[in-house]
Amino acid sequence: MATVEEVAQRQRAIAEQTAQLGHTSVAQLAAAFSVTTETIRRDLKTLEHQGALRRVHGGAVALEQQAASNAQRLHAGMQSEATHLRHRQAIGLQAMQFVPKPQAEIFIDAGATTEAFATVLARHYLGQRWHVVTNSPVVAKIMCAANIPDVSVLGGTLRGHGKALTGKAAISALQRLRADVAFLGTNAVESERGFATSSEPIAEVKREMLLRARHSVILSESFKAHCKSEVPFASFEEVGTVISERPLPASPLRCLRDANTQVVIP
């Protein structure tokens, strides 16, 4: 269960993201913060009472004076789930080029974009000798449904309605492993801090995967370059490749190039 401070931090991040984008959806927020949709609805109700935003069907919108200054970003927050799914699938298809052949040790992080990649990976399974290690029960289920025989699920504490396994058990398991490539998600791509996520336990697992993989690939929809999140987990220099569905804004793109991080666009 989240602490009072963690709840307050999440609600501040939701308010900031809604103000920046002009609109946010319950489903997107639940995925971004690895919590249930019911938790997000309670957060939005609290924030509306505080005058930070206005609830609408399926999400929330910024107050008029905030939304006016962020009109150029409104379209990002209004994108349908179908559009997001297409973006994630396009990212997943591009990520396939980083899976070694004919065998590979693969880390797959928890998250909506990495789940989409797992679905693409499953479709491409033709008996390759893949060992998939994940902290996501959802990813593990996708792999097993494709009859991939060598799938390991990290132990630990489930956070965010079973979306991610974290904690000492997960870290301890990772410390005994090595991977050819790690595929990770991110909640934000920040010019000042690099890649960030919603909590320290989730960040710890991401850092350990990065440390123990020969190559690392961040899978991120482009709108996350407009987001902020609580905990940085990697600098641009620590990541080998970033894949997005469209070009990133100039500032983070320049930072990535300065760090010699490969940027791949479908």
Task: Describe the 3D structure.
GO terms for molecular function: DNA-binding transcription factor activity. 43% of the residues lie in helices and 23% in strands. The protein is α/β, with parallel strands linked by helices and 266 residues long. The protein has two domains: 4-78, Winged helix-like DNA-binding domain superfamily/Winged helix DNA-binding domain (Arc Repressor Mutant, subunit A); 84-264, Rossmann fold, CATH 3.40.50. Helix 1 crosses helix 3 (37-49) and helix 6 packs across helix 7 (112-123).
Based on helices, strands and strand pairing, what is the structural class? Answer: alpha/beta
Query: What would the CATH topology of the largest domain be?
Result: Rossmann fold
Strand numbers in spatial order across the main sheet: 6-5-4-9-12-14-15
Tally of individual helices = 11
**What profile does the largest beta sheet have?**
7 strands, parallel
Global shape: globular
GO molecular function, one term: DNA-binding transcription factor activity
Function: Repressor of the lactose catabolism operon. Galactose-6-phosphate is the inducer.
Pfam families: DeoRC, HTH_DeoR
Protein name: Lactose phosphotransferase system repressor
Question: Key features?
Answer:
single chain, 266 residues, alpha/beta, Arc Repressor Mutant, subunit A, Rossmann fold, 2 domains, 7-stranded parallel β-sheet, 3-stranded antiparallel β-sheet, 11 helices, 43% helix, 23% strand
A few lines on this structure:
This protein is α/β, with parallel strands linked by helices and 266 residues long. Helices cover 43% and strands 23% of the residues.
